[in-house]
Amino acid sequence: MFFVYSQREDVKKMWKRFIFENELTDKLSPIVKDSWIRSNQWKVDPFQPYGHIKKIQMERYKSLIDWSAPLMEGLYSIVKGSGFLVILCNEKGQLLKSIGDPNTLEKAAQIGFVEGADWSEQTMGTNAIGTSIVMDQPVQIFAEEHYSQICQSWTCSAAPIHDSKGRIIGVLNVSGPYEKVHPHTLGMVVSAVRAIEYQLKLNENAEKNIMMQRFLEATTNNMKESILIIDTKGIIIKANDQLKKLLCLVQSCLEGKTIDELFTNKDIVSNAPVSLHNQELHLKVKPTKTIHHVMVDKIPIYKDQQWIGSMIMLKEIEKVRQFVNHLSGNQAKITFDEIIGQHPYFIQKVNEAKLSAATDSNVLILGESGTGKEMFAQAIHNESKRKNKPFIAINCGGIPRDLLGSELFGYADGAFTGAKKGGSAGKFELADGGTLFLDEIGEMSLEMQVLLLRVIQEKEVVRIGGHKVIPVDVRIIAATNKNLREEVKKGSFREDLFFRLNVMPITLPPLRERKDDIPLLARHFIDRLSKKLNKPFPDIMPDFLQVLMQYDWPGNIRELQNILERTLNRSTKPILSAKDLPEEVYQMLPGQKKEEMCVNRDEMKKQSIIQALHLFNGNITKAAKHLGISRSTFYRQMKKFNILY
User: Fold this and answer.
1) Exposure pattern of 606-640 as b/e (b: 16+ CB <10 Å)?
2) DSSP secondary-structure letter at 394?
3) What is the pLDDT of residue 2?
4) Which domain holds residue 183?
5) 629 and 580: one domain?
6) Is residue 216 part of a domain?
7) Same domain? 387 vs 493
């Protein structure tokens, strides 16, 4: 801003009154007035005889100097011979380069106005260079408006130079005798600065393009995925190193070729802006006649809303699955294919669960501990439309009441002592788009039930200690071994929350009510445990299964798995019989001892064959398979025990 006073003496009087009496007048320019106040606060010496000179690493500013020099020369050609200097400073106000008449340069040197001189406002007080940096705008300082007396024979016009991000990287200044200043001087400086910024931007864009090319090449070559970039005609522009390794091809077989010369798969070779996302396919490679099982992503690339090509990413399916398994904390592993059971009532429950998977309604799974409630929850998730989204489980009874709220809803920055800086997302946020499994929901406090009900109703969450409303799309599957209707009557569980959760109820039967499934479950667990322990699958004697079927299993399937693992760990023989089972199983059998059970083995074999025939309506093949023996062995046993069916 060009500010004119009627007389220079008036400004001089204002300056003296401020320096000696600390008094200011409203007649002073607001920019100068505020700068004088800052200079005083910074304790700048207004009578310092010489400017401060500091060492500068000139190499750091080489680009700025090189691009500014021609425009500085052009500006100087306009003021040449008039006693003016054209000066370039860095972002701190330190002088980098000056152009001027020899006598003017000599005069400037007398007050330290040379390379390395610090003309920041903090050091020299009010001056065009330093004040323009503080204000981040063009500034003109006239004679006695300067805070330091050694500058008061000059009038200076300066404007900050910005980079493409708007940051100050330097200052261009024109200084000369106060009596020769003209309001257009500042305008010329501003015009020169705009030209410098434009040149710097062009240079920056050119360097950025080179850098981005190198960055793209380095990035694609260091990615774990195999990358192909093609144009709209299907011509391969770029193939990274991973793709060459995957397909066992050299550079000459890839770049410059068309995509249909490489693959036979229609989804891949289509020359259209089609997107593919996590599509599993068997990739057929023409040059090598090999097939690769991969996961494919195809992403169209646009410039100015016009399709210019596509990027294809290939991930080996085995590595994808390894990665998914690694994320076991927020992925469901169990499917309905892994839920074992043939009992009619159990099959009915499986069918109910499959029906619930087809909806987006909340599910309440009821049943004793160990009946497989979380397995059902995972299977429902994996059968639902949310299967590719997170599955997050939380045990409401295993987390202290005071911590459950922050686990479920998260907390804001500074919500409590020890809270992580920036806050933390809760399980609802992490499960967004997927499923949240609330195990032991019956253990949740009434206070927490109120908060949970609000989230379910409003589909939004507010972190503890925060105010921001965060929308969430989460499907709730809750589970409990309690009778929630009784808990509602007792007042320990909210009725409105119960009805919100009890949309699709599934009651799982205890193992004692589906004992016909025990042989099937036992073989499944033994097979899995044998592989885990690196042991051959043992022969299972009928008396072994008979004892298992007579036991009531208060711990249900979890207890069965535990007993079988203990038995298999202790066994050193290729056969499992009743005497291999732990003593605790027999302690639960009324009137039976382990020795008596083992002696009466033939009777147990006979009963197991009769039960298998009854279970499968006389189908020998299914009955034999159920007992884990061959058809011929089954017939021999029937003949031995005189069983007619």
Assistant:
1) bbbbebbbebbeeeeeebbbbbbbeeeebeebbee
2) E
3) 42
4) 8-203
5) yes
6) no
7) yes
**Residue 598 above 70 pLDDT?**
no
Question: Apex CA 630: angle with CA 627 and CA 633, to 5°?
Answer: 95
User: Collapsing DSSP states into helix, strand and coil, what is residue 537?
Assistant: coil
Question: pLDDT at position 418, please?
Answer: 65
Whether residue 154 is contained in a domain is answered as yes
Judge if 380 and 502 occupy the same domain: yes
Amino acid in the structure at residue 209: N
Q: Read off the CATH number of the domain in which 124 is found.
A: 3.30.450.40
- Assign 280 a pLDDT band (cuts: 50, 70, 90): low
Contacting residues for 167 by C-beta, under 8 A, at least 6 apart: 91
Q: Which residue has the higher pLDDT, 252 or 551?
A: 551
**Are residue 446 and residue 312 in the same domain, yes or no?**
no
The total of structural domains in the chain comes to 4
pTM comes to: 0.47
Are 174 and 90 in contact by the 8 Å Cβ rule? The answer is no
Q: Are residues 53 and 186 in the same domain?
A: yes
Q: Which residues contact 212 (CB under 8 A, 6 or more apart)?
A: none
Residue 404 lies in a domain: yes
- Which of the listed residues 322, 343, 359 is the one where a domain comes to its end? 322
Mean pLDDT of 34-60: 93
User: Does residue 294 contact residue 269 with C-beta atoms inside 8 Å?
Assistant: no
Residue 274 predicted with pLDDT over 90: no
**Are 169 and 134 found together in one domain?**
yes
Cβ atoms of 245 and 270 within 8 Å: the answer is no
Which are the contacts of 632, defined by CB distance < 8 A and separation ≥ 6? none
Give the burial string for 485-500 (b: 16+ CB within 10 Å, else e).
eebbeeebbbeebbeb
pLDDT: is 477 or 545 the higher one? 477
- Give the rounded distance of the alpha carbon of 433 from its chain centre: 14
77 shares its domain with 185: yes
pLDDT of 281 higher than 80: no
pLDDT at res. 426:
85
Is 419 in the same domain as 564?
no
Whether 210 is covered by a domain: the verdict is: no
CATH code for the domain in which residue 490 is found: 3.40.50.300
Closest to 263 (Cα-Cα) out of 236, 242, 240, 241: 236
> Nearest CA to 439 among 406, 407, 478?
478
Residue whose structure tokens are 């038995």: 567
What does the alpha-carbon distance between residue 17 and residue 329 come to, in Å, rounded to a whole number?
73
Amino acid letter, 422: G
- Hey, is 207 helix, strand or coil? helix
Out of 285, 303, 322, a domain closes at: 322
CA 594 – CA 601 distance, rounded (Å): 11
